[in-house]
Amino acid sequence: MGSPHGVITPQRDGFWVKNVNFHNFNFNNAAAIGSCSHCFKPPATDSDSRHVNFSGLTFAPTVDRKIRYQFPFKGIYEDHDGSLTGKGPGSWATSNWNHNKWLTQCEVDTTVYDGILCYSTVSVRRIVIYNAKPGSLNGKNLYILPYDADITSQFADQ
């Protein structure tokens, strides 16, 4: 017997899961939600389920695990009403990677959520660098700042 999922999210941005009731996911490591359809084994050619939106979810007491991420473990789930994470509207669930851990704004829950839960004060985003040459980023710091039109507008004419 396998470890089933109720919904496995796709390899695309903008997918919505709305008004779904989950029941009887309390056996054999089952989970209500899984990440990345068609990414089940390495080497995956895609970076996972990306940014998926959730609202109107209900979980019966027979749901032991709400999320179980699958390879390559990089899904980003935005909870628009708090029904997935219990952290309120605009909260997030994502995989358990150190770079996603914010000191007081996120917490690790590997038992029920298989990852990190963040409050709405944090935005979780996917970053992709295209056409990087092997080794071109070795030893270089990567700084990521919040988008601010006042800062970026100074580069518009360059």
Write a concise synopsis of the structure shown.
The protein has 158 residues and is mostly beta strands. It is 3% helix and 25% strand.
Write the layout of secondary structure elements.
Layout: E1 5-8, E2 15-18, E3 21-22, E4 31-34, E5 51-55, E6 58-59, E7 67-68, E8 76-79, E9 91-95, E10 106-109, E11 115-118, H1 149-152
Account of the 3D structure:
With 158 residues, the chain is mostly beta strands. It has one domain. The protein is 3% helix and 25% strand. It has one helix at 149-152, and strands at 5-8, 15-18, 21-22, 31-34, 51-55, 58-59, 67-68, 76-79, 91-95, 106-109, 115-118. The strands form 3 sheets. It has a 6-stranded mixed beta sheet with strand order 2-5-8-9-11-10, with no helix packed on it. It has a 3-stranded parallel beta sheet with strand order 1-4-7, with no helix packed on it. A hairpin with a 5-residue loop joins strand 10 and strand 11. The radius of gyration is 17 Å and the shape is globular. The relative contact order is 0.15. The mean pLDDT is 83.
Low-confidence stretches: none
- What is the 3D shape? globular
Strand content: 25-35%
Indicate the percent of residues in helices.
Answer: under 10%
Question: Top keywords for this entry?
Answer:
three-stranded parallel β-sheet; 3% helix; mainly beta; globular; six-stranded mixed β-sheet; 11 strands
